[in-house]
Design goal:
Blueprint lengths: L12 E2 L5 E2 L9 H9 L14 H9 L2 H15 L10 H22 L8 E6 L2 E6 L8 E5 L7 E13 L1 H4 L5 E2 L5 E2 L4 E13 L5 H10 L7 H31 L3 H7 L2 H15 L2 H19 L3 E3 L4 H7 L2 E4 L6 E12 L7 H11 L6 H12 L9 E6 L4 E6 L2 E6 L1 H7 L5 H12 L3 E9 L16 E12 L3 H10 L3 E5 L4 H10 L10 E3 L7 H8 L4 E3 L3 H13 L4 E5 L5 H6 L2 E5 L4 H6 L2 E3 L7 H39 L7 H20 L11 H31 L6 H27 L5 H18 L1 H6 L7 H40 L1
Parallel strand pairs: 11-18, 11-21, 18-20, 19-20, 21-22, 22-23
Antiparallel strand pairs: 1-2, 3-4, 3-5, 5-9, 6-7, 6-8, 6-9, 10-23, 12-17, 13-14, 14-15, 15-16, 16-17
Protein name: Cation-transporting ATPase
Main location: membrane
Membrane topology: Multi-pass membrane protein
Length: 832
């Protein structure tokens, strides 16, 4: 809506349905000036897309190393016409779909990111006040800033009529800031009172808020230790798989009479299928899927507790966090002010008269947050508005207010202002004020002037004669859940620090009140004294618990310094000033009432802003990591024995001992389905570094035992049973027998991984063992998976093979620690 023109005779222009503005001499830009700036792109428009398109997301999830290996193997099997042996390829679709859905959701969140709220603004152009949209503001515009406006562009104040800004979303400072002429104001801050005319100095992507937004929008994918370990396995297996696959095809063709005969007889198809069985077994395809599913399930469980996980892999990061940086406002405190108490001064008594006067002093037409806190507290005590004959409203410039009532004049304001005007010695009052302020409280002094009243309201002056009566003590409201939550983190060995833009003494007092460091007083520091060097800063931070006067750039630098000391850092925040640090941290945690920018860049959002959800979040991360380490050993054991079996087949030129569908059957019952259940079991074990090395140390002995058992069956059973492996029926018998040996050994590994078995875990192992045996007895299942129930003679041979395999399994696992210690001593000797 437009505004009427301002006259040159001193009258005021007014918006048709808005406030009246004082006339100023500035005419603002002309229409031609505005048009030139629009043509040159100097407008306040900001792009609202992220750096990743949907095509990029699909491409990154489809064209992966894992998908390439599995897809190639599936195509080869389908080319032979044996579709039953290609069921393992379904894993590609599921795993790719999960990744695309999760990253698309993150993209949409980032695309919605906007620090600035879209609204209309009033600018001065051609001597008139006109209303324009946010994007319609251009460089050098003369912008009116009114109470309630969020500043849309960086500017310099030309004239001010008591303008006060809330810059907490930019700086972290929770107090309002008065702005005078020639001072800069930044986009993203909010006008809480007053009026100003400002010259726009930066627009669009050059503005402060837009710069922060652009940095926040850069896509950053969380890479978990678990995913990194799986990817490491895949990289190494790729180096092994490609040459081994070629050798397997060659060896299987040699086993059926060579290349020429296999092509003539069509037995090349059997050779290819056998080779794929070896390749598929080497790739822990189920582990890749289970990692994604487990992260997704953990995210859904957290969502039921009003905790939104925006990047699935960040769930695992929760388990590794050893350092938590807390923003005071919005995390420890909820940003509101509460009146704690009224303290008498000298011989004064806090009676009904004093309480009534304090209520009336705060009960203005538009009380500030502190006044509202006083009204709310006294209202709960039954105090109601009294008779006021005259009033001097509170002003941030004067820092006091006054009322005349039935009992005379009363003043309420900043103690230093009031005491400096009063005659006499009031050192005792000042000392009491100082002690309370050092404890993190906001203190107001109540002075009574009695019959002298408050003087002329049109010429407000502090009295020189008056009696200090009481101190009104207010403070930021501390969340009820802050203290127990911080205690939980201390017990779990997570170092917590409070990082705030407020005064260090105030923040330190609040930190001590919530027991940040237990019984010890927290060590505070002014962030302006921090060294610039990252390494030196990291050393200083080891001895600091509370940092005050922290700038947004410093928050990010603090996270970087902690990273340089090998800490895994989580960061909580709720303001625009926290976005860079939230993005830099290993885990960014935003409150539900946070700025849109903070929520968009955080990996975790506490939807109901309850700090007490953080222990649940960390516990869920620990469950994921501990259980996934347990089940990863199952998958890696399969990788080890498949690789060793493939190598043995190549070296001895025997038919491959099982088909792809056999490994699918055994893998589902001894690894896939049991692993899914084990991964969801309760587990609160703290994360211990070295995930991959521990998994390898467990998996290699088990894989070696299984490979040796299966290959002994492949080598010895044909002679014992009198099988001619050139006949398809006898070869099928051998493969079915080796599959049974493989299944028995797989159950043994499952039992070891699931231990202790004196619980539901033992029942789990027994059920899957029974399911495997029962499947062979069900004709459709046995037919699909090419399994035959053994004859009596074959059963005796299999029982003997299983007993021998069990002995091999026990011996190898007993020797493994001894060999491991010997290898470690050898490594240390070489290092010396």
């Amino acid at each position: 809506m437009g505004m009427e023109a301002m006259s040159t005779s001193g009258s005021e222009a007014r918006e048709h349905d808005g406030p009246r503005f004082p006339e100023v001499a500035e005419r603002g830009l002309s229409a031609s000036d505005v048009e030139r700036r629009r043509e040159s792109g100097q407008t306040n428009h900001v792009r609202d897309t992220t750096s990743r398109s949907f095509a990029d997301i699909v491409r990154s999830n489809v064209f992966t190393l894992f998908n390439g290996i599995i897809l190639t193997a599936m195509v080869l099997v389908l080319a032979t016409g044996s579709w039953k042996d290609s069921v393992f390829g379904v894993i590609i679709i599921v795993n790719t779909g999960i990744g695309i859905v999760v990253e698309t959701r993150s993209k949409r969140t980032l695309d919605r990111l906007s620090i600035l709220v879209a609204a209309n603004y009033t600018v001065r152009r051609d001597g008139r006040n006109v209303e324009v949209a946010h994007d319609g503001i251009v460089l050098d515009d003369m912008l009116w800033i009114r109470s309630g406006d969020q500043i849309p562009a960086d500017a310099t104040i030309v004239r001010s009529w008591g303008l006060e800004l809330d810059e907490s979303m930019l700086t972290g400072e929770s107090r309002t800031v008065r702005k005078n002429e020639d001072e800069d104001v930044y986009s993203g801050s909010t006008a809480v009172s007053g009026l100003a005319l400002a010259h726009v100095t930066a627009v669009g992507e050059h503005g402060y808020a837009a710069t922060l937004t652009a940095k926040a929008k850069v896509y950053h994918r969380t890479v978990s230790d678990l995913s990194r370990g799986v990817n490491t396995i895949l990289r190494y297996m790729t180096v092994v798989v490609i040459p081994l696959c070629a050798l397997l095809v060659w060896s299987q063709m040699q086993a059926v009479g060579g290349l020429h005969q296999s092509l003539e007889t069509g037995q090349w198809r059997s050779a290819v299928v056998s080779s794929v069985a070896g390749v598929v077994g080497m790739i822990p395809e189920g582990l890749v899927l289970l990692v994604s599913l487990n992260f997704a399930i953990a995210a859904m469980r957290l969502a039921r507790k009003n905790t939104l996980v925006q990047e699935l892999e960040s769930v695992e990061t929760l388990a590794r966090v050893d350092c938590l940086n807390l923003d005071k406002t919005g995390t420890i405190t909820d940003g509101t002010i509460v009146m704690r108490t009224i303290v008498p001064v000298g011989d004064a008594v806090i009676d009904a008269t004093v309480r009534q006067a304090i209520f009336d002093l705060a009960n203005e037409e538009n009380p500030n947050p502190t006044g509202r806190a006083i009204i709310d507290a006294l209202s709960r005590e039954g105090v109601r508005g009294g008779e006021v004959s005259s009033r001097i409203p509170f002003s941030s410039v004067r820092k006091w207010s006054a009322v005349d009532g039935p009992c005379g004049g009363w003043f309420l304001g900043a103690p230093e202002m009031m005491l400096s005007a009063l005659e006499g010695d009031h050192d005792d009052v000042f000392d009491k004020v100082t002690a309370l302020a050092d404890g993190g409280d906001r203190v107001l002094l109540v002075v009574r002037t009695g019959a002298a009243g408050v003087g002329n309201p049109d010429v407000p002056v502090l009295p020189s004669h008056g009696t200090p009566v009481a101190l009104v003590v207010c403070s930021e409201n501390i969340r009820d859940d802050a203290e127990p939550t911080l205690r939980w983190f201390r017990d779990q060995g997570v170092r917590c620090r409070v990082i705030s833009g407020d005064n260090p003494a105030t923040v330190g007092a609040i930190a001590e009140r919530v027991g940040l460091t237990g019984d010890d007083a927290p060590r505070t520091m002014d962030a302006r004294e921090l060294p610039d060097d990252v390494e030196e800063m990291s050393r200083v931070l080891e001895d600091v618990d509370v940092l005050g006067r922290v700038l947004p750039e410093q928050k990010k630098a603090i996270v970087e310094a902690l990273h340089s000391s090998s800490h895994v850092v989580a960061m909580t925040g709720d303001g625009v000033n926290d976005t860079l640090a939230l993005k830099e941290a290993d885990l960014g945690i935003a409150m539900g009432n946070a700025a849109p920018a903070a929520k968009a860049v955080a990996q975790v959002v506490l939807v109901d802003s309850r700090f007490s959800h953080l222990p649940d979040v960390v516990a869920r991360g620990r469950q994921v990591m501990a259980n996934m380490e347990r089940v990863a050993t199952l998958f890696l054991t399969k990788t080890v024995y498949s690789s060793l079996i493939a190598l043995a087949v190549v070296l001895t030129r025997v038919p491959f001992p099982y088909l792809p569908r056999h490994i699918s059957y055994v893998g589902a019952l001894t690894i896939g389905m049991p692993a899914f259940i084990l991964a969801l079991a309760p587990n609160t074990r703290r994360y211990i570094p070295g995930f991959l090395s521990r998994v390898v140390r467990f998996a290699f002995p088990g894989g070696l035992a299984i490979a040796l058992s299966v290959m002994l069956g492949a080598w010895l059973l044909p002679g014992i049973m009198g099988w001619d492996l050139s006949r398809a029926s006898d070869l099928g018998e051998l493969r079915s027998s080796c599959t049974m040996i493989l299944f028995a050994m797989g159950i043994a590994v499952l039992a070891r991984v699931a231990s202790p078995l004196r619980s539901w875990r033992g029942v789990l192992v027994a059920l899957f063992a029974a399911a495997g045996v029962g499947g062979i007895m069900i004709p459709p299942v046995a037919s699909f998976f090419a399994l035959t129930f053994p004859s009596e003679r074959m059963l005796r041979a299999l029982l003997l093979a299983v007993v021998a395999s069990a002995a091999i399994f026990v011996v190898i696992h007993l020797l493994a620690p001894v060999v491991g210690r010997w290898m470690e001593r050898l490594r240390r000797a070489i290092m010396r």
